[in-house]
Amino acid sequence: MNLHVLPAGPIQTNAYLLTAPERGEAVLIDAPGDVWAGVSRILAKEKCRLIELWLTHGHWDHTQGAAEVVRATQAMVRAHADDRVLYETPEVMSVFLDSAIKLEPVFPDLWIKQGDVFTTLGVKTEVRHVPGHCPGNVLFYQATVRAAYVGDALFAGSVGRTDFPGGSMDVLADSIRRQIYTLPDETVVYPGHGRATTVGEEKQHNPYVSA
To answer: Can you give the pTM of this predicted structure?
Structure first.
């Protein structure tokens, strides 16, 4: 399985494209604005078809390109129901945005929850619910490749904002300790913004949430 990191959209939100050329299939994690152009090039080069789109949470910068991706591929969409209003009625976020930023709804096909386990591209993935930044923030953990895609819950040396509706620093800190810091230290944490880090690095050095 190949991993492609694709920062895109107005604030350079990370999308992660997982491709399995031997299967001819791929999965996209999050869909910032205009990400489809980069995704489509890689799919063509590796002769893969996008079969699923996994959304870590409902904030606009992670979903702005989702409708375009779904129209182009008919990929199945997985997301957490606690962010349903953000996915299906994204205009509720417009009050926080420049008027030039246009949003389209996306309608998940499968509502995921804490503890769900499924296999895609031949890799087992576990869902962990990590609210605090956003009510429906989840992470996708793949033990066999030591990877966790965490959305905006945790960054290298930082954490997600908690001053938006539905945010709570107390809830986020508890989520990080219970759902991220309990993963093996060598797990690579792929955040919604910025560089990758590891669970061990953040447990030791993150100034916002101690282990």
So the answer is: 0.95
